[in-house]
Design goal:
Elements lengths: L8 H12 L4 E2 L11 E7 L6 H12 L3 H14 L1 E8 H13 L3 E6 L1
Parallel strand pairs: 1-4
Antiparallel strand pairs: 2-3, 2-4
Helix pairs in contact: 2-3
């Protein structure tokens, strides 16, 4: 994926993927109505990435300590997915991009 070359790249990434329905987003209504909403960032289990890689990515992307990162990675592995973070739209989209760029499977859903 090539990121837009402007200072508001996260807004543009969100809007472009929203319009193309390429990003995993769950909500009803128009784009602007979610500006102040909270979003869940999901991490999904996969058969490719090592447990240590997932833990390290969670610590680097979200700043989670090792204990929290291990708990989230374990939950994703055993249940198929976990909520890695709850945050604003811009942060959620940015963090999802970081997870995807690290080879993990991630989704974002409005609460």
């Amino acid at each position: 994926m090539i990121l837009p070359q402007n200072e508001n790249w996260e807004d543009e990434l969100f809007r472009n993927n929203f319009e193309k329905k390429q990003m995993f987003l769950i909500f009803k209504g128009d784009y602007e109505s979610f500006e102040n909403s909270k979003f869940q960032v999901f991490l999904y289990d996969d058969a490719v990435n090592s447990f240590d890689h997932v833990v390290n990515v969670l610590m680097n992307v979200f700043g989670h300590n090792e204990s929290i990162a291990v708990r989230l990675a374990t939950e994703a592995h055993t249940r198929g997915r976990t909520v890695a973070e709850v945050e604003g739209r811009k942060e959620a989209v940015h963090h999802q991009y970081q997870l995807l760029a690290s080879g993990l499977i991630s989704g974002v859903a409005v609460i």
